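Quick one, probably user error.
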């Protein structure tokens, strides 16, 4: 069995943002030489996410609005977690909603994504360096 493990590093300049990492992950699949297998992409921080969806600017904007309605950042005093001196309780909840990882099949040496599917790194408490794990296994 072949394996490849890589870390992707991000420093999103704003509190929140979405980064399309599909091309980067595809390049890692090529580098792995895996023809049939699985590719796991996992956010390694509890206020970040990896998710798979359409790369359409309107949808990404809608995610921003929807997530802020579900778990608004302010007032930060509304969250017990923030009593620890942090102000990111909403980011933990947004991550929980969006998920921590994406798993994609590799078929004939390529990511086996649907017609509109793209892989995104979602950041909900940015402005510092964070990473995602890419783990590829197969034959």
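Nope, works fine. Designed sequence:
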């Amino acid at each position: 069995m072949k394996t490849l493990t890589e870390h992707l590093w991000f420093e999103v300049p704003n509190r929140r943002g979405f980064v399309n990492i599909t091309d980067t992950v595809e390049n890692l699949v090529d580098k792995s030489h895996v023809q049939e297998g699985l590719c796991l992409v996992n956010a390694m921080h509890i206020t970040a996410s990896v998710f798979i969806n359409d790369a359409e600017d309107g949808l990404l904007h809608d995610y921003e609005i929807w997530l802020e309605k579900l778990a608004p950042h302010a007032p930060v005093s509304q969250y017990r977690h923030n009593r620890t001196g942090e102000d990111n309780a909403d980011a933990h909840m947004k991550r929980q909603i969006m998920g921590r990882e994406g798993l994609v099949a590799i078929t004939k040496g390529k990511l086996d994504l649907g017609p509109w599917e793209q892989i995104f790194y979602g950041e909900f408490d940015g402005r510092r360096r964070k990473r995602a794990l890419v783990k590829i296994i197969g034959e």
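The first strand starts at residue 2 and ends at 10.
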